[in-house]
Amino acid sequence: MKIALCQTTVHKDWHKNLRNAERVIADAVKSKADMVVLPEMFICPYNKKAISAAAQPEGGEAWQAMSEAAAKNHVYLVAGSIPESADGHIYSTAYTFDREGRQIGKYRKMHMFDIDVEGGQYYSESSVITAGDEVCVVETEFGPIGVAICYDVRFPELFRLLAKRGAKAVVMPASFNRTTGPAHWELLMRARALDQEMYVLGCAAAGDLAGSYNGWGHSIAVDPWGSIMEELGEGPGMLMAAVDFAKADEVRSQIPVLQQLRTDIYEVCEKTVG
Ligand SMILES: NC(=O)CCC(=O)C(=O)O
Asked: Which helix (H) or strand (E) holds 50?
């Protein structure tokens, strides 16, 4: 399976970002992508005002454009994240569409990026976004693929749940920053890949020093052995990762940590919410 990570620049005008997304999706398919992934909040700058202004319900203009782009290009599409308005809240939502443009997955970012690093990055995502509470795995003809978003990568429990649901690859729309990016991004992506012996593919927004958020870029593909397959720099670009689900099986059989878990002593289990 070929998965394209499209590291786009995010402009102020969300219509412009949608048109750009349509262009990069078509380009990725020309390069034979089976699935295209876009960055977290690819339609608007990553700040409270822009997120609130671009928020729209499921089925709204951005959803429609992405569904049509998936169908037109006959490709699976993880449409980054889009600010979704629902019940008086805004969620950071990753919709996944199949090759016919049907929605086959909906993931609302579960862990809020609320940090305050002395002399570095401050962010209070929960002041605008409401956290989701459902784990998401989408079915494709290649196998099940998990979806998570950016800060979620710091929570191994979520990745354990995704693996328990059968995921051998997890795709992650993301937008790390220049404080934690250089220190943690690669390390976290490799750690999660190795924990569950799965592919972890992070699609970040391009860095933009003139923008309101200090994005780090560096979209990355990590294999089930924990090796970096490829990593982009800060500018816009596309990374094409060849994902072979048999490789996850191979690593899992050679180092069978997932069978050696001491579930008699500890366990990660999913609680039913609501
Ligand atoms: N958009 C995000 O969730 C950013 C996460 C991040 O930068 C981190 O350090 O974690």
From this structure: helix 48-54
Residue 44 falls within a domain, yes or no?
Answer: yes
Q: Interface pTM (ipTM) of the complex?
A: 0.99
* 48 tagged catalytic: no
Q: Is residue 271 part of a domain?
A: no
Spell out the residues 6+ positions from residue 196 whose beta carbon is closer than 8 angstroms to its own: 159, 160, 162, 163, 167, 258
In total, the chain counts a number of residues equal to: 274
> Active-site residue 203, yes or no?
no
Q: What number of other Cβ atoms are within 10 A of residue 256's Cβ? A: 11
Question: Could you tell me if residue 102 is inside a domain?
Answer: yes
Residue 274 in any domain: the answer is no
Instruction: Give, for all 274 residues of the chain, the pLDDT tens digit.
Output: 999 999 999 999 999 999 999 999 999 999 999 999 999 999 999 999 999 999 999 999 999 999 999 999 999 999 999 999 999 999 999 999 999 999 999 999 999 999 999 999 999 999 999 999 999 999 999 999 999 999 999 999 999 999 999 999 999 999 999 999 999 999 999 999 999 999 999 999 999 877 788 899 999 999 999 999 999 999 999 999 999 999 999 999 999 999 999 999 999 999 876 5
40 assigned to active site = yes
Which of 42, 44, 46, 113 is the pocket-test mutation for ligand 1 (most atoms within 8 Å of CB)?
113
DSSP string, 53-96: HH-B-TTSHHHHHHHHHHHHHT-EEE---EEEEETTEEEEEEEE
- Which residue ranges have their beta carbon within 6 Å of ligand 1? 40, 113, 150-151, 154, 175-177, 180, 184
* Entry pTM: 0.97
CATH no. for residue 58?
Answer: 3.60.110.10
- The domain in which residue 211 lies consists of 2-254
Number of domains making up the chain: 1
For residue 64, how far is its CA from the centre of ligand 1 (angstroms)?
Answer: 28
